[in-house]
Amino acid sequence: MTDEKLPDSVSDAVAAKVRALRRARDWQIADLASRSSLSENVIENIEHGRRRNGRRTRQVSVDELFELARALDVGVTDLLPGLQQGERLTALDPEGIAKLIDQLQTFQALQRQREQGEG
CATH for 10-118? Predict the structure, then answer.
């Protein structure tokens, strides 16, 4: 993952993908809320994040991740950083799971590098 604008957290990356998918469908937050079990307030907090000192204080939960994927009619992995749209991983695919773990570790390493550069 070599994107110049590295998100602060996995939740920030998920939020960006949710927002992009929602906008691509020309949906407002209320439209996504009506298609999910999440309130408008929760979706807004996911997309924009509660912040303190520039850092997200509320992370996206696994339940929210699955609900957003269902409502957007995409795979859960479509919302995770480092994966291309439509690239799916399944519990029965050890190679795919290994790839996901590798991508998340790479994301975390890049995040640590950035934080060390700020300090």
Answer: 1.10.260.40
- Tens-digit pLDDT string for the chain (119 aa): 444 455 567 888 899 999 999 999 999 999 999 999 999 999 999 998 777 887 777 788 888 998 999 999 998 888 887 655 555 545 445 666 676 677 777 766 776 777 777 65
* Distance (Å, whole) CA 37 – CA 83: 25
Dihedral Cα 60, 8, 3, 61, nearest 10 deg: -10
Going from N- to C-terminal start, the domains of the chain cover 10-118
Is 48 in a helix, a strand, or coil? Answer: helix
Query: How far apart are the C-alpha atoms of 58 and 39, rounded to whole Å?
Result: 15
